[in-house]
Amino acid sequence: SAVISQKPSRDICQRGTSLTIQCQVDSQVTMMFWYRQQPGQSLTLIATANQGSEATYESGFVIDKFPISRPNLTFSTLTVSNMSPEDSSIYLCSVDSGAANTGELFFGEGSRLTVL
Amino acid sequence: GDSVTQMEGPVTLSEEAFLTINCTYTATGYPSLFWYVQYPGEGLQLLLKATKADDKGSNKGFEATYRKETTSFHLEKGSVQVSDSAVYFCALRGGGKLIFGQGTELSVKP
Lengths: 116, 110
Prior knowledge:
heterodimer; A: mainly beta; 7-stranded mixed β-sheet; 4-stranded antiparallel β-sheet; globular; B: mainly beta; 12 strands; about 0% helix
């Protein structure tokens, strides 16, 4: 299984600011996924990030609000831009187990953001 | 599109009680099915999985069987412990994406 490290683990942010979350994996992976878990809710996929190409965003999420970088096969960042209290969530990075798009995903511990 | 529907919580049980958490899915094709668990203050962990019809996934006393005819993947445990208190998520993977149900909070009392 992959070991995934996320930074920061938690932060308190002011409305209107932006924050970048980093995700580091201990092995090379093709696909990385960013999820959001709003308080008391399930996990919703924000986007899929492949190295060397633009991220693919799910319905309801846009690049201007959640820009993603994927500079290499072990690292990705998600920025939450122009934050509002509605962006208070846990943001999770995940990677494929490698089983041809049918296997499980491994998850980082998440980054808990509180927007005031 | 693909979706997962879980039994609503919270579910409160006494220790050693039998647990069932219902999960049904809608998908095109033949997705893989998963149960993930989120213990208080911890990250999301894979509990068990099944990749094709009639497969049974099992781990830590929990079991779930992939039922294609009823499009279900119900989670069961014969005797729960206080340490099983957590939020349980049913999920499917189809088209490369992992899609989660809404989660079911389980609280086990001594």
